[in-house]
Amino acid sequence: MRLDLADLRLFIAIVDTGSITGGAANAHLALASASERLRKMEAEIGVPLLHRHARGVTMTEAGEVLARHARPLLAQQQRLRQAMHAFACGQRGTLRLFANTSAMSAFLPGKLAAWMAAHPAVQIETEERTSADIVSCILAGVPPAHPLAEKEEVAFAAVLNEPLVALYQTSALQQHIEQHAAELGQALNVRVRMSHFAGLCEMVAHGAGGAILPRVIAERYRQRYSFAVIGLQDRWAQRRLCLCYQDDASLSPAMRRLLEWLRQP
Question: Which CATH number goes with the domain that contains 259?
Answer without folding.
Answer: 3.40.190.10
